[in-house]
């Protein structure tokens, strides 16, 4: 899906979870949209991604695909949905039926990736910090652990993932991986040498001003914008200023 982009311009991926945001993200020209299972945390209010279900993911994937009709959409397979290769295939097909163009799986799940790829399903890998199974959110791949992540990258690459998300890994490790795999590496907290970058859209937009990990750059402060807009509405309604003539029917 993205092989041709490797070595050319940087690939830009963003998450989206609903119709309107997907439309805007597409209008801004991103290369790929990920319906991430971060949905669980930023949209559904769960503490981690571990509670997200297939039904929730499919519901939001359908909405995103209605909004972004000419950008490839990747569905993030939630925990448990790829417990075995056969379960993975069944669920991956549901993502494609919902309108997605491919799926993402976390970890070096060899049998699962092999099965999906052999069935013609575009698969995005995800290594480094794996939120579905991680006990804590921290950089993965310092020292000896880096060799493991490097080897896993070569393995999933050989199995045919078209792209590989590297989450919270040291920059030099991401560089080494990027230089040694065919798939397009997409970093989040993985430094500047990846073939592309992804952020969670809510983080980029500054929807939660109590949360800002080091790798996140806020390009807007929607938390403040929304609070201010709602407070202005409340004030005008309470003060009898809204609705005025311009917003009333006669
Ligand atoms: O769920 C998600 O949003 C992700 C990205 C952080 C890559 O997996």
Automatic annotation (TrEMBL):
Keywords: Coenzyme A biosynthesis, Cytoplasm, Magnesium, Metal-binding, Methyltransferase, Transferase. The keyword Aminoacyl-tRNA synthetase does not apply. InterPro entries: Pantoate_hydroxy_MeTrfase, Pyrv/PenolPyrv_kinase-like_dom, Pyrv_kinase-like_dom_sf. It catalyses: (6R)-5,10-methylene-5,6,7,8-tetrahydrofolate + 3-methyl-2-oxobutanoate + H2O = 2-dehydropantoate + (6S)-5,6,7,8-tetrahydrofolate. It is found in: Cytoplasm. The active site is at residue 167. Catalyzes the reversible reaction in which hydroxymethyl group from 5,10-methylenetetrahydrofolate is transferred onto alpha-ketoisovalerate to form ketopantoate. This is 3-methyl-2-oxobutanoate hydroxymethyltransferase.
